Amino acid sequence: MALVSVVLFGVTEMASGKDPSDSFEIRSGQGEINPAPPMIVMVEEGKIVFYARGRSMSALPETAYVGIGKYVLDVDEHTGQQIDSVKEALSSRTFAPEHGLGHGPVLDFSFEKNGRHYQGEYNYQLGEAFNNKLYPLYQIADKVLKNGHSEINLHPVFTAHSDAGGFVLELTFGNDGEKDIRIAGPDTWSPDLARPDQRNVQISAINDVGTSFCVRLVSRYLSEASRRYAKEITVKPGEPVTLAFSVPYSAVTFSDASSSRRITSGSYRFIGEMTVDVLAPAVVSGKIYTPMKAVPAIYLQAQISHFGPYRRSDFEA
């Protein structure tokens, strides 16, 4: 049955033939240069649905994989009370629409309460006291992520090993959900370390003496067997897909603090993160971000100089 309504300052008198869903979306303001992906919490038919795209649920960025996809959990008594408290806070005042290029997170909300429909947006920069009333949204999302059932899922991991003149990195995409998931491949990933706003898969490493470097994975490093995934990667449930990248030492960029400008032999600790586009399913399409689990230390051979023995300047930052 169609919704019959009259809008009055963000509040709608409503009549409907079924229980509508409640929706809460936290997104970045339009003025953000590198906006974080949105996080969406929906409540419908006694279930909470959390669409996780990698937005951090705390003031600090995530340092490990926590979940990407669609997660579903039944509403229990405590969670129901948390939802009601958020709706009570948002229905207690009227919020002016956002204009211009704002910064910081914004909450878009749409929900039903006592026969009325409330819809609007709230800028989190307006006040810490009111922000605290909305904190249960993060607690709910975290609970669904940890205890919910994953209907849609993407779980990337990587391993690395030494190779002649470089190293081989194997990037594996797992899928613990119920549906195929399709992402844009390395053809769309940027090699430019100076552009965090572009889609990329970035690997960083450091050893015990302070040699540290970064590299972004792109199509030209793909193995012959992995080139079929250059444009798109489709991951079926329970069927991981692995892409192998052969990265030459000449491709890495040393950090400003690195103790050397060449790879020195030794064990390196590798970490990785990715910002890529999900193409399908549509409900989770768009930008996602996630760090990946750190791998055990990898031994790398020293980089061979084309100009004879190492010079003292090679080890100066």
Characterization of the model:
There is one protein chain. The chain is mostly beta strands. The chain folds into 2 domains: 148 residues, no CATH class; 161 residues. The protein is built from 3 helices and 20 strands. The strands form 3 sheets. Strands 1-2-8-7-3-4-5-6-9 form a 9-stranded antiparallel β-sheet. Strands 12, 13, 14, 15, 17, 18, 19 and 20 form an 8-stranded antiparallel β-sheet that branches. The longest helix is centred in the first third of the chain and has 15 residues. The chain is elongated and about 75 Å long. It starts with a strand and ends in a 17-residue tail after the last strand.
Overall geometric form: elongated
- Could you describe the largest sheet, including whether it forms a barrel? 9 strands, antiparallel
Oligomer: single chain
Order of helices and strands: EEEEEEHEEHHEEEEEEEEEEEE
Radius of gyration: 23 Å
Give the termini separation.
68 Å
Strand content: 35-45%
Query: What number is the mean pLDDT?
Result: 89
Q: Helical percent range?
A: 10-25%
Low-confidence parts: 1-9, 13-17, 307-317
Domain count: the total is 2
Biggest sheet strand line-up: 1-2-8-7-3-4-5-6-9
SS summary, helix count = 3
Q: How many individual β-strands?
A: 20
Structural class: mainly beta
